[in-house]
Amino acid sequence: MAKFLGSTKSRIIVFQSPRGVNVICLLIQDSYCWRVGRSLKHSDDSLIDPLSGHRLSLAKIHIVGLRLLQSMLLRMAPRIKVLEAASSVADGRVKKQGDSYRVVSSSGEVRVYTVSITDSKVKSDDNGTVYRGYVGYPIIAVLMVEGRLQYNPRIGEALRGIPWKKLNDQYKNYAAVEQIAKRKASEAGITSDEIDKYVDLVLMELKSLKLERA
User: Fold this and answer.
1) CB atoms within 10 A of CB 157
2) Going by C-beta distance under 8 Å and a sequence separation of 6 or more, which residues neighbour residue 124?
3) Cβ proximity of 100 and 116 under 8 Å
4) Over the range 80-98, which residues count as b (16 or more CB within 10 Å of their CB) and which as e?
5) Of 42, 58, 76, 121, which residue is 20 to 30 A from 190 by alpha carbon distance?
6) Whether pTM exceeds 0.85
7) How many other CB atoms sit within 10 Å of the CB of residue 39?
8) pLDDT exceeds 80 at position 39
């Protein structure tokens, strides 16, 4: 029996047969790319569908992997993304545009994201969503604007104007950038504990939405 390596939350799905045949599915943006490590040499060198338990021929492997990836839930966002989202709402960088939303990066018009949400199906072209498989801050910001996630205007206002992109590129450490944001918020009388409780609340709400790729 083949061994199934990976999970429906992975960016890479790997099947491995008893005889060492590796089938790797790599999700790049919205395209599905397949690579087979070595050719099947034996008739029993087939793979088992982890969903149904049925034995599969190589020709059908791609269908299984595709179904796994398409049904993949987006992972939870890093904590700092809640603060980035609240900041973008306070900055007025989230605008409705037809059936979707236009979210401008903290670095300005040089980077603009398009977000569309239908029930639990979401689509966004930000790096976190596309390349890392978690709910990116533009999606969180839109959900705040739509009232599906709680927006705290007091905290949002305290985080206005923070150059998130610049700080993330500079420190390459979300924890360090979060501390900088908390220090700025403290100038408006908002404590670190208040921010932590707000982030916990939003992440709990976000988890209950069980967002999937559109």
Assistant:
1) 17
2) 113, 114, 115, 116, 130, 136, 138, 139
3) yes
4) bbbbbbbbbbbbebbeeee
5) 76
6) no
7) 8
8) no
